[in-house]
């Protein structure tokens, strides 16, 4: 059986990955419910958050890389948000075609309204969890994310060795 070739750590990480996939699905559903009355989806909210929390204006491609998703999907949503007046494009001094994306006042207001809904929700969700346990989980997720990013970089640099 293929599972028998996995190390104990490999089995544990496989179980964790499956739980993270399930958690992601539930988070998206919960997020959709939380912000639906604001006219948002989890995906739109996530992109507004990436823009809002960015230290400086960034391109669509940069936001997609930071979020770990495909640029085309982020571009589609940002185009929709732009048409609705929530984000706008600014010239990028480092690249002629890759414009920078910033929140408009309407986008900032909408993002703040979403956060106002998220705060009591997340406080209830985290009730009874210890900060140390949360930090441990965050550390494991960060380490796995870093390893995946490093592997992706190696594959991008050596595409024939995949």
List keywords for this structure.
162 residues; mainly alpha; three-stranded antiparallel beta sheet; 67% helix; 10% strand; globular; HTH_MarR-typ
What's the SSE blueprint?
Layout: H1 8-35, H2 42-53, E1 58-59, H3 60-67, H4 71-83, E2 87-92, E3 95-103, H5 105-125, H6 131-157
Antiparallel strand pairs: 1-3, 2-3
Helix pairs in contact: 2-5, 3-4
| Total number of beta strands | 3
Distance between the termini: 25 Å
Please count the helical segments: 6
Percentage of residues in DSSP E strands: 5-15%
Our Rg estimate from Cα atoms comes to 19 Å
Main β-sheet, in a few words?
A: 3 strands, antiparallel
Main β-sheet, spatial strand arrangement: 1-3-2
Category by helix and strand content: mainly alpha
State mean pLDDT (0 to 100 scale): 93
Low-confidence sequence ranges: none
Topology as a string of helices (H) and strands (E): HHEHHEEHH
How would the global form be characterised? globular
Helix content: 55-70%
Protein name: MarR family transcriptional regulator
Organism: Ruegeria atlantica
Pfam family, one: MarR_2
